[in-house]
């Protein structure tokens, strides 16, 4: 609690030297506290990259450091999305990789030889310190230094931000929040001073943000909104004009330098608000100029009214479009987007879980800001209102809300402490006999507030330790006596793939594991977490949910050598492929002749794996691969053999025989199972005639017209296959 | 001889007359049923049925009309969000049929709610809702008489296509245009415009910081209490346990929430915010010392009480959370 307690005394009016020393110490301690709070995973497990997306970022960074920057920009990754491949250089935000690569390069120049993996693991905790410094600077501009220090301490440990920046979580958001806060600081600074210097700084910071995260759209809409509201409030000034004109032009040009962004800033609707406000600002400034020369002021006011109404209409329509886009998207339920849990709306429990006391107190800060409004407090109010809306719509956008909540809560707490802490704030007017009573009351209030802050710190530590520090690549289970078992099945299996399979072997798995296979096993994958090609994912989903023969056709057409699945039935791991199975069915193309989602349910509409389960489910490839040889296995004496601990059921199909696949590897706790796809037998499948090049094409088209063939609906690859078999 | 003739005549009479009689009876019964159905349909385009009506008008044999039935569970405690949407679409379909020029007594639309006719659900061994079934005029329902909801969705157009397929009755879907949104917007604009016009000599209220601060706070509190989740997911207001009759306002899991619960949380958050503001006001305002003392005590009391209350609600939902304050 050192940083917190230190933050309080920053409000004291000390001599300048003491004050800056104190602020420096507090910021340093906040950095240290934030850094150490994020190390739970490293201490409990090891220095390892977490989860899914970070594995891709790590792999890309590794590519960058080994092959150089230009090679990275031109990188065509033939190991992903087989057989399509992926143009990585043009489809990533390179800021994260370049930052990590640069740090690695500088450290190596100084002969500090660290592995790039360690740089990647510790990047986000280090940047959290920078985030708290930029939050300090921004809050200081908005309110005062005491509030700034408090905000820095809040953001260092608040769970809403820690959730994306623990050690090992090497993801865009880790550095993007720093860039976001720093851009806002420089923007507020440039509005306050009206100097081109600060505006250029703001543009550069914005450029860094654009290179790091798609959330830059938030900045390019919030800053124009700020300018627009300032115009409406008749707070137009030369400072605003200089700041925004510089920011828009240079920021636009800079943001278009990122290959993945390209020409979007002048084409897409979410950037149009910025352009509209830019035009409006020029018109308004021109009218102001005219107003100084002319006398027909009434006419000008009317003209201004018309212009601002038109601009308002444009702005609202843009917002409307964005909003309806979101809501219609929620209605349609694109399965692949709906299947990702972080795209869900937010319950109040998540707000409280991630922000604790701050969620109740930040409206008070907002109240103080609006009551004592000025140019930059307009900005923070707009920031709070827009961020809270987006956080309500989507859980993952809690991340953009967290900084402003910290700032406003800091404002609220520091205004309370300002009045209740310290003797020099005491009024002169109250009579002497009341002063001891008042002191008691002040002390009581201070103590209680400190207690709340202590509870906040404890809550943050608990949440970080329990909810946000699991690498999910390595699992841990606890015995009754408190001792710990490490389940390292994932890495065991990926390492097996790396060592025992051909270098160019193609591994089919559900898309969740694509990045990990590429990163850890270094093998070619069919689909991964990038999810840019829905039909390809659908094809894999189809293979998993078909029966073995149909699946074999699909797998042969995709040149699959190995199939990797996650099975949690032995240890009771709930995130396995059988539990994700319905998404595979939903995403796979639904055509009337093919098995439907309802076919995988019992007639009563239940999803069951035991004897009562639907026969379609009991014979599909995913079921067979998951439970192959599982029927012989008795886990303990209370349950029958073949008892699935995740779904608490005895499996319904114990006698599973595989015809086209053979088991290649099963990890220690059966968490990962790998199957080899057999090559076709020599004497099998020769029903078709020898190739007749002239007739094939004609038959193919006629067949497609007739549409009678069942298999013709299975997608491009299968169509070719059927056509070969049929001719 | 005479007797034989008499018997044969009698037999002839019986054999000749009896079918005609039953036919007649059947026809009167049928026309009675049709009239009854027509009467109901004229009242509401979708007939609400319970177990008795279902057996009499749908299951019992003499029938020359098809019935399309939606089996649903619309009671709020069933928490069936899809049912509500499906019901709207079904109403659109039935209304389009009811008010079309081609309206005949060949097809009727009906609905059976689980809470009114659970025996029907048992009879048909159904346990999922909504389900659309078609009961043809002749013969038993076949497999295709069950609408494939998972595949085709419940848009009224799709339903109409299915009905046309099953009964040869073409229904053109006419959706009543939704005036509610534009009307509401127009009303709001009119109110704002009227207010502005009435106060045109005194537009001070636009510059009143309290109004703006208050509305900003309202918006923020609405969002942080999860109203957006309610808007998208449509949870019930509270849950009433059917066996004990006990009403619970707080959902037991941290993944979901009731509407009542979010209102409670909104109030708690607002109380804590108010406490903080009061604390500051107490220190800065120019009121006399006694009032400031009361404000200060009330402020810290509000913050402490409602925060610890909020914490205890959170603790009840988030199982395994170890900390509490003042109340457990």
Automatic annotation (TrEMBL), chain A:
Q: What class of enzyme is it?
A: transferase
- Positions of transmembrane segments: 21-43, 87-107, 119-139, 145-163, 213-233, 240-260, 272-290, 302-323, 348-370, 377-395, 401-422, 443-464
Q: Which reaction does it catalyse?
A: a di-trans,poly-cis-dolichyl diphosphooligosaccharide + L-asparaginyl-[protein] = N(4)-(oligosaccharide-(1->4)-N-acetyl-beta-D-glucosaminyl-(1->4)-N-acetyl-beta-D-glucosaminyl)-L-asparaginyl-[protein] + a di-trans,poly-cis-dolichyl diphosphate + H(+)
> How does the UniProt record describe the way this protein sits in the membrane?
Multi-pass membrane protein
Q: Which InterPro entries does the entry link to?
A: Oligo_trans_STT3 (IPR003674), STT3-PglB_core (IPR048999), STT3_N (IPR048307)
Spans of biased composition, class Basic and acidic residues? 685-697
Q: Does the keyword Nucleotidyltransferase apply?
A: no
Q: Note down the stretches annotated as region Disordered.
A: 685-727
Give UniProt keywords alphabetically: Glycosyltransferase, Magnesium, Manganese, Membrane, Metal-binding, Transferase, Transmembrane, Transmembrane helix
Q: What is its main location?
A: membrane
Task: Report the residue ranges that make up the Oligosaccharyl transferase STT3 N-terminal domain in this protein.
Answer: 22-408
State the needed cofactors, names only. Mg(2+); Mn(2+)
UniProt GO cellular component terms: endomembrane system; membrane
User: EC annotation?
Assistant: 2.4.99.18
Q: Which residues form a coiled coil?
A: none
Q: A GO biological process this protein is involved in?
A: post-translational protein modification
Q: Which domain of life is it from?
A: Eukaryota
PANTHER family, per database record: DOLICHYL-DIPHOSPHOOLIGOSACCHARIDE--PROTEIN GLYCOSYLTRANSFERASE SUBUNIT, DOLICHYL-DIPHOSPHOOLIGOSACCHARIDE--PROTEIN GLYCOTRANSFERASE
Q: Which family does it belong to?
A: Belongs to the STT3 family.
User: Could you identify this protein by its name?
Assistant: dolichyl-diphosphooligosaccharide--protein glycotransferase
Q: What organism does the UniProt record list as the source?
A: Gasterosteus aculeatus aculeatus (three-spined stickleback)
TrEMBL record, chain B:
Q: Please give the superkingdom of this protein's source.
A: Eukaryota
Gene Ontology BP terms: magnesium ion transport; protein N-linked glycosylation via asparagine
- Transmembrane annotation, as ranges: 179-198, 210-229, 264-282, 294-314
Q: Which InterPro entries match?
A: OligosaccharylTrfase_OST3/OST6 (IPR021149), Thioredoxin-like_sf (IPR036249)
Q: What is its subcellular localisation?
A: Cell membrane; Endoplasmic reticulum membrane
Pathway listed for it is: Protein modification; protein glycosylation
What GO cellular component entries does it have? oligosaccharyltransferase complex; plasma membrane
Q: Which UniProt keywords apply?
A: Cell membrane, Disulfide bond, Endoplasmic reticulum, Glycoprotein, Magnesium, Membrane, Signal, Transmembrane, Transmembrane helix, Transport
Family statement drawn from the similarity comment of this UniProt entry: Belongs to the OST3/OST6 family.
Write down what this protein is called.
Dolichyl-diphosphooligosaccharide--protein glycosyltransferase subunit MAGT1
